[in-house]
Structures are given as structure tokens and as C-alpha cells.
Amino acid sequence: MAETLMDGRSLKKFVENDQLWSKFVDEKFAKLDKGHTGKLKHSDLEPAISGVGKALGMPPMGKDPEADHIYSEMFGEFTRSGEGVTKETFSTVMRDILLGLGDGLEREPIAISRLNGSKLEQWARSPEFEIEAVAAFGAIDTDVSGHVKAGTIKKAMGRISVDQGMPPQSDGSVSGYIDRAFQEVGINVKQDLDQFQFVDVYRKVALAVARQMQNKPLTVAHTEKIFDGKLIGTLLKDKAALDLALELAWEIMPKTSNGSAPKSYLRVGLDTLAPHAGLPPVGAVPEMDSVVNESFKMIDDDAVGRVDKPEFDKCMLEVLGGIMLQLEGKPIGVRSSGVVPPERENSLNSGMPF
């Protein structure tokens, strides 16, 4: 499983090379400017912004409200003038976006793996496979009947990680590999299997997928984000940045005529602070939600109460401090993986997002 690392340095080096950047902008702008008007419309910009979104690990446009808000913000950066986007504006805004992306990749590099089936075959033939297969059978056999349907092996395949040579099933092409593997093995999905039969068929399906990947390898981009509280500590030490973040969070709180806000919205305020403190949105990482819930126990967040600005700031600081202490004692790691479309492989390997 060959692996390369996209850590942002090559991307920033490319953007800061005036000659290479000018050539890139000329070619990309000409490709987007299908009408040859010298100005890009909203629809013309979609491929470029969509490419940046994919590089950031965001869902496609129209699939997630939070992601769509970010896409909208990116469109807004390009179209502030309200008239079509010139090549100069495109160059300036795209440079800023990609330099920011480069900074992010330096903090959280993306590993790019070429999966050709060898790693999956090795794992499927190893002693560890049988241990995992028995565990998968136990997880699926919820009624403890001693039998499961053969079709449940498709679900079990989702337990095999990228480290073990299996691309994520979230990509439709991977599901196709598994369906063809079932056909090759010749197993009826409705057939009952006991534990011994399940382990045997599970291995056969995994090996069949590995053989397909030998003929048609897949490229997978995966990253791991560690929430360890360090960015919270950085924010708490930077008074100017902290005051600004708290002010922005307070602005979105609903208020009465006397300027107070309901305590029931404190979590909304924390969600607004989250990007400044290196935290994920509420609901994005269940383990983090548990940490947040534990930290809110430190304050009196009675839903019927109200807070003014000083009280709001005090609550947010206590919650952030509580989250930081928990993460320092037990950091949370979140891994994400996605299959790279063939048309984007060369760009990712060269450090470019699209």
C-alpha cells in the first residue's frame, strides 16, 4: 500500500511561485470561462469551489446545510463586486483560499494511499482476520441464534479499515466491488450461515475484492484530526482574538429589550466559538459532544435563566476551560477517509486540490 503525504508545503510553494501560479490561473480561468467573456459567473465558479470543498473534506454542494454555508461564503469572496469575476479577482481570492488550505494541511496532513489489493489479501489470510470475523459475527448475531444471513457480510466489510487495505464503503464504487465479489463467490445473500461458515465466506469475499483491486486499484485520501485542547489554550491566551470570538458569539444570541439572552442558547454560543477554539460543530463528533456535555455541568445552564454579556463570557470561558482540561487528559482522534476520483489523482499527488 504505497502512501504519500499531502502536507501543504508543496501547495504553498506552488502558490508562491509567481511563474507557476500565473500559468495555473491562465489555464484554470480559461477552462472555467466557457463563454470567453473574460468574466466568470456564479455557475462558472462552481467547479473550482467544489474542488476546494472536496480538498477540505466537505460534502458536495446541496448535501449539508453547514457545508453549503461555507460554499456560499467562498462564492461571496469571489463575487463581492457584484459584477462577473475577472481573472485578477479570481487569482487574488483563489491564492488566499489555497494558502489558507496549505496552512491547514500543515497542521492536519492528508495521507494518500494507493490500494491495489495486496494489503487486503495479506490481512484476509492473517490470523488477525479470523479474530475480527468472529467479532463481526457476534456483533451481527444480535438475537444470539447462532446464524446470520450471508448478506450481512456486506455490513461486516465496513469494519475493515484503510490500514487493513479496504477503501471506505461510503464511495459507490466500493459497494460495486463488494457486489461483484458476492457474485464471484456465488453466495446467496439470503442463505443462513453459522459462525464457521460466516468466517469462511467473509474471507472469500474479502479475497475476491482484493483480486478486483489488483486489476483496478483505488486511491484513498485519509486524515486524522486530534482534539487535544491545545488550540483552546492558544485562544484563551490571545486576549484580542478571544474578545473578538466572544463578541461574535454574543451577537448571534437572541436578546430581549434589556440585552439579556436565554441560557438555553449557551450551546449555540459555544458552537459559534468552536472554529476559533479548534472544536468541531455540535453533533459532528459524538465523543466530543460527550466532553461538551460534561463541561456544561460545570455551569448553571438552567434553560429558564438568562445571562447578560459578562455572564455569557464567564460561562463560555468556564466551558472552554473544562473542555480543554478533559482533552489534555484524554485527546480524541477522528479519522476520515474517502476514495479519490481518477480525475483528481494527479492533482492531489502534486499537492493541488483540483
Automatic annotation (TrEMBL):
It comes from the Eukaryota. Residues 335-354 are annotated as: Disordered. GO terms for molecular function: calcium ion binding. Residues 287-322 form the EF-hand domain. This is EF-hand domain-containing protein. It comes from Physcomitrium patens (Spreading-leaved earth moss). Gene3D superfamilies: EF-hand (1.10.238.10).
